[in-house]
Specification:
- The complex is a heterodimer of chains A (151) and B (70).
- Chain A is an all-alpha fold and 151 residues long.
- Chain A contains 2 helices and no strands.
- Chain A has a domain of 80 residues.
- Helix content of chain A is 87%, strand content 0%.
- Chain B is mainly alpha-helical and 70 residues long.
- Chain B contains 2 helices and no strands.
- The relative contact order of chain B is 0.13.
- Classes of the chains: A mainly alpha (151), B mainly alpha (70).
Chain lengths: 151, 70
């Protein structure tokens, strides 16, 4: 014989599952936000490393050019092309990282609106939905004369 | 390697959807239809929209990381 209160039992199970879903999805949101922050921090660290390297390589180039000028005055040839190439490489990589930083900010900005809506859904709408289900369960129990045993 | 958060979120959505499908088999009155339209369907849609956006966003983050490893 089918359980005549199967709907109530199913609704209770669904309501409990919805509460678990809310907490677990909240963790998903936190982890998503964290991964974005990790990427931002990582790109900033890489940009910082290449900024430092660029400054060192620029100083090396200046020193080389000074030495080359002295060599030239003494009638000898000197070559700073390796230092110039190193400066150019550091500048290009720094520019490349900056372009990625910009792209990441744009992407995170676009995502923020959707994430905020979902956060509101989890924090505000879902508890209301759970309460609504609880009211339905209580109503069904009352209509059938089943004692209410808490949420 | 742990799953990406959007993949975990998808899995959670599949689980709650299966619980809902089971609930729907037993909950047959008018309130069930109203609940489905007013609460459940928007929740499902909003969750899917968020998880899709998160997945796309994390793809970009991953590419940014890999592309800047010189």
């Amino acid at each position: 014989m089918a359980d005549i209160h199967a709907d109530i039992d199913a609704l209770k199970e669904f309501r409990d599952a919805l509460t678990e879903f809310r907490y677990a999805q909240r963790e998903v949101v936190e982890r998503g936000d964290h991964e974005i922050e990790v990427t931002r921090a990582s790109l900033e660290a890489k940009a910082g490393q290449w900024r430092s390297l660029l400054a060192r390589r620029e100083a090396d180039l200046v020193a080389c050019e000074r030495a080359a000028a002295a060599e030239a005055a003494a009638g000898r040839a000197a070559d700073c092309s390796a230092e110039a190439t190193a400066v150019q490489e550091a500048q290009e990589r720094l520019d490349y990282i900056r372009r990625w930083q910009q792209r990441v900010e744009e992407e995170a900005g676009t995502f923020r609106g959707t994430a905020d809506r979902f956060r509101n859904l989890l924090d505000l709408d879902l508890p209301r939905t759970e309460n609504h289900l609880l009211a339905i369960i209580s109503g069904l129990q009352a209509a059938r004369g089943i004692p209410v045993t808490g949420s | 390697m742990p799953a990406r958060p959007d993949e975990d979120g998808d899995q959670l959505l599949r689980v709650i959807d299966s619980v809902w499908q089971k609930t729907r088999q037993h909950w047959l009155d008018d309130m069930a239809g109203h609940f489905e339209r007013t609460y459940w369907t928007p929740l499902l849609a909003e969750s899917r929209t968020y998880l899709r956006a998160l997945g796309e966003c994390l793809e970009v983050m991953g590419t940014a990381e890999r592309d800047t490893e010189f």
